[in-house]
Specification:
The structure is a single chain. By secondary structure, this protein is mainly alpha-helical. The chain has one domain. Helix content is about 55%, strand content about 10%. The protein has a two-stranded antiparallel ribbon with strand order 1-2. Strand 1 and strand 2 form a beta hairpin. The chain starts with a helix and ends with a helix.
Length: about 110
């Protein structure tokens, strides 16, 4: 984060940028895992940033939260780098179907 980002007419924006940067640090360290939406809202509230669920849904589509949060699925927050891996069964099924299709083409 650059200092000129904090120098703006809106102090709330500066707080959001700062809290988002701190959250990114927690995610990078692995300290922020399996957070619920309520935990995320409480985290922002701890730093005097009052948000509701609707605000968060729109904020994760734009920087700075776009760089930290991938998605919110139900009540679960998915952070960047912590996306759930594809189940091995799905990969295996796709390989079997592809193999069958190749044999049918011959």
């Amino acid at each position: 984060m650059l200092l000129y980002e904090l120098d703006g007419p809106d102090p709330l924006l500066a707080k959001i940028i700062t809290v988002s940067d701190q959250l990114k640090s927690l995610v990078d360290k692995g300290s922020a895992k399996d957070w619920t939406l309520d935990q995320l809202l409480a985290y922002f509230q701890k730093y005097d940033v009052s948000l509701d669920k609707k605000d968060l849904y729109s904020m994760i589509k734009k920087p700075p939260l776009k760089d930290v949060i991938t998605n919110i699925q139900g009540d679960k927050v998915i952070f960047k780098g912590a996306e759930e891996p594809v189940a091995p069964d799905q990969d295996t099924n796709q390989e079997v179907v592809k193999s069958m299709a190749d044999k049918a083409m011959k």
